[in-house]
Amino acid sequence: MRPPNEVLVLWRCIAAAAKCSLSDLGAQERVVSALLHLVALADAASAGVGLSTGPKGPDAYQDRSRLLLAGIGANGASTLSPLLAPTEVRVLPKQHAPRGGLTLRSLTHHLALHIGGEVTPFWDNVPQARRSESLNLLIAPWPLTLQPSQFQVAAGALDNMPDHFGFVDFRLKENPALVSEWVQSLLDQAVEVGGRVDGVVFPEASLTMAEYQQVVSVVLARGCFLIAGVLSTSVGAATSSNQVMFDATEAGQRIHTAQHKHHRWRLDRSQIEMYGLGGTLDPARDWWEHIAVPAREVHFVTFNDQLSMCCLICEDLARQDPVAELVRSV
Questions:
Q1: How many CB atoms lie under 10 A from the CB of residue 100?
Q2: Which of 50, 54, 216, 298 has the fewest CB atoms within 10 Å, i.e. is most exposed?
Q3: What pLDDT sits at residue 186?
Q4: Where does residue 36 fall: left (phi above 0), alpha (psi -120 to 50 degrees), or beta otherwise?
Q5: Confidence band (pLDDT; 50, 70, 90) for 126?
Q6: Are strands 119-125 and 296-304 parallel, antiparallel or unpaired?
Q7: pLDDT tens digit string along 25-55?
Q8: Do the Cβ atoms of 155 and 283 come closer than 8 Å?
């Protein structure tokens, strides 16, 4: 497919300056103007990219974009710029442009630039069978009770970790049948009060894998999406797994994502005393959550042209590096 003549003219202007150093490029007004024009054209052509509400019917650009966002040709991760090293730079869909100030993000409405490869983005689409201007969320406060005895000193240790620090495990009291029955009842009550539930949200580390498998079947059967904190407890010295999982079924399509926590929780004296954990954990030491921290990922989910979201777990909101720039760019 031949590009439009306007694009070819702009590209030739840029190619003619291929030997110009970046430090001198700012003085080349024609080249800078051509670059900005190409950015604007690419942005306008990308309206609807990454959205289930994008153009209908045959559209080669949209079809190719869907493959790229599905991770085809980019080591499984999402990017609209497959010719560029994804560890250096990625181009993603965008829904929110800054309303104030002037930054690089202000240049575009439909494309986001993310520089750096410390966090790998993934992009998923959840086509909505029903269109609504509101979203009703049911917050599920599970488990109903916690005991200090569920916090235990972890068996593992690091040879080079100072004695002032230790690792702590959290042990859930697993009961898949109970939580399944409880969430069924909670959904019934929520529908009676609010009329409709679109999504159910469970807290961080609230479900075991067996409990999650029961809950997700219940929630999806009710036509809701699920966001749930799932804790896979370790055995012996192995680290646990603390993840947030997202599940939805819309228009016959099933979406599932799983994202590990980016930062460990650290319990200090004030928290140990506040939560009554002094009988288990020495308040004179700081205790790190005994979880694995694998390569960082962020999963974006878009429902329509008004809503895209991603999930971050507790410390990942408090310690915003390195994910904040990626989230803001989108």
A1: 6
A2: 54
A3: 97
A4: alpha
A5: confident
A6: parallel
A7: 888 999 999 999 999 999 999 988 887 655 5
A8: no
Query: How far apart are the C-alpha atoms of 29 and 13, rounded to whole Å?
Result: 11
Instruction: Quick: pLDDT tens for 273-307.
Output: 999 999 999 999 999 999 999 999 999 998 877 78
Are 39 and 141 members of one domain? Answer: no
Domains identified in the chain, total number = 2
Phi, psi of 41 (to 5 degrees): -65, -45
Rounded CA separation 298/322 (Å): 11
| Residue corresponding to tokens 């809701």 | 224
Burial class (CB in 10 A: 0-12, 13-18, 19+), 89: middle
Together in a domain, 169 and 90: no
Residue-number span of the structural domain to which 102 is assigned:
5-123
Residue of 301, 322, 318 whose CA lies nearest to 310: 301
For residues 123 and 111, the answer to whether their CB atoms sit within 8 Å is: no
159 falls within a domain: yes
Q: Are 30 and 96 in contact (CB under 8 A)?
A: no
Predicted local confidence at residue 60, as pLDDT? 78
